[in-house]
């Protein structure tokens, strides 16, 4: 999982820079809508909503926009657009499996955009279920300033985490069942750890090793193209690329 975790870490760093772009505001606002719709529209009792709001505030989204997104999810405000969640699946260069989560008010437009992204970047959009069986959804806590790995292990075990992985100097990702994510986050914080991000992530059960530089560039270009689509919320792929090749390809 090391290569994939390294890529996830790079994506988070990239997201900080990209937060100035309008489509990132759109994605974060839509995440709030989904969270408010799937649970109670009160962040105090809805962990997913609370997390989405925290990310929106960190990106500088105004409170009025956040409140409006919550109201949309709760059904107390409407702008005439009805959003639905759709998952797309396909294959990228070299047979890499790609899973896309989208939120759209026009599924025909989104499907066309996703199909074009695949076809222009050496991939193919597949049928529902063609790759999703390779992934399982996990909760992930990103912890920074980890000075004592043994203490992290003890805290993770206490919180019923599945595993953890050091992805960078003093940065760790701790994995758990998605239903246990709030408990994991609270336990790590109570133990004094600096939890900087909380997310749900699709984890591949098997990985495709990419060793060709041109193929690696094509994979990254496909993922970037998909992530830049306004309706796409998240993109996951099952590639494994060495850090040296990753640095050359980005």
Automatic annotation (TrEMBL):
Keywords: Cytoplasm, DNA-binding, Transcription, Transcription regulation. Residues 83-239 form the TACO1/YebC-like second and third domain. It is found in: Cytoplasm. The keyword Nucleotidyltransferase does not apply. Pfam families: TACO1_YebC_N (PF20772), Transcrip_reg (PF01709). InterPro entries: Integrase-like_N, TACO1_YebC-like_2nd/3rd_dom, TACO1_YebC_N, Transcrip_reg_TACO1-like, Transcrip_reg_TACO1-like_dom3, YebC-like. Residues 5-75 form the TACO1/YebC-like N-terminal domain. One of its GO terms (molecular function) is DNA binding. It comes from the Bacteria. PANTHER family: TRANSCRIPTIONAL REGULATORY PROTEIN YEBC-RELATED, TRANSLATIONAL ACTIVATOR OF CYTOCHROME C OXIDASE 1. Belongs to the TACO1 family. This is Probable transcriptional regulatory protein WJM97_12665. It comes from Okeanomitos corallinicola TIOX110.
């Amino acid at each position: 999982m090391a290569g994939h975790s390294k890529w996830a870490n790079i994506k988070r760093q990239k997201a900080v820079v990209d937060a100035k772009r309008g489509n990132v505001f759109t994605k974060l606002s839509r995440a709030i809508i989904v969270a408010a719709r799937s649970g109670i529209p009160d962040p105090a009792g809805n962990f997913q909503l609370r997390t989405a709001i925290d990310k929106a505030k960190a990106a500088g989204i105004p409170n009025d926009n956040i409140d409006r997104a919550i109201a949309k999810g709760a059904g107390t405000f409407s702008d005439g657009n009805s959003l639905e969640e759709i998952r797309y699946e396909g294959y990228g260069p070299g047979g890499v499996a790609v899973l896309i989560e989208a939120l759209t008010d026009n599924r025909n437009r989104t499907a066309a955009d996703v199909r074009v992204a695949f076809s222009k970047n050496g991939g193919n959009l597949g049928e529902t279920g063609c790759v999703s069986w390779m992934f399982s959804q996990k909760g992930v806590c990103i912890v920074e300033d980890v000075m004592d790995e043994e203490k992290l292990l003890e805290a993770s075990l206490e919180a019923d985490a599945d595993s953890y992985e050091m992805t960078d100097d003093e940065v760790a990702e701790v994995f758990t069942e998605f239903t246990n994510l709030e408990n994991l986050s609270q336990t790590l914080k109570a133990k004094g750890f600096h939890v900087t991000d909380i997310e749900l992530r699709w984890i591949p059960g098997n990985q495709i090793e990419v060793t060709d530089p041109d193929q690696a560039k094509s994979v990254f270009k496909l993922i970037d193209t998909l992530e830049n689509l306004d309706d796409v919320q998240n993109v996951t792929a099952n590639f494994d690329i060495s850090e040296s090749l990753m640095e050359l390809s980005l």
